[in-house]
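Model it.
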Amino acid sequence: MSHGLRGHGGGRADRDGPGGWRAVATRHALLPLRVFLGVTFVYAGIDKLTDPDFLRAEGPGSLGELMNSVRDTSAIPAMVDLALKSPVGFGYAIAAGEIAVGLGILVGLLARIAALGGALISLSLWLTVSWDTEPYYYGNDLAYLMAWIPLVLAGAATFSVDSLIAQRRRHRRVIGSRAY
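Modeled.
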């Protein structure tokens, strides 16, 4: 009894061809990562905007309190000092950045730029908020940073606005080359 994939002609399907399951899996391999990071970053941004305590300069649960608590243990205290000049403004900027990055990667619009933004946010959080976490693998910001790198390199090749734009450009080139 054969348990292999069967093509239309009854023979074994070409697993490595352009329509084979390996090729399809390869094309869509980054899709779960895009969905996870996109949803997580949109949620994180909305969570910051809707938390009445977070967007304050001081007090329990405020960004100001968090920044003051990590200032002396961060890798780059100057980054924390910059945020402490206007914690509320910085909080809004981080929240807006997370939402923009999350939506960009979810819909695949300027996906490499969105992924770079996500990587930079994660890097800045790792160097400040979670730098002192021991052992290092308990902190999630480094893992998020590493998760963004494949998307910076590959972009959003499928199910994305970027792929639709690229497809439209290819179509116009083909039509344009036939006109001559």
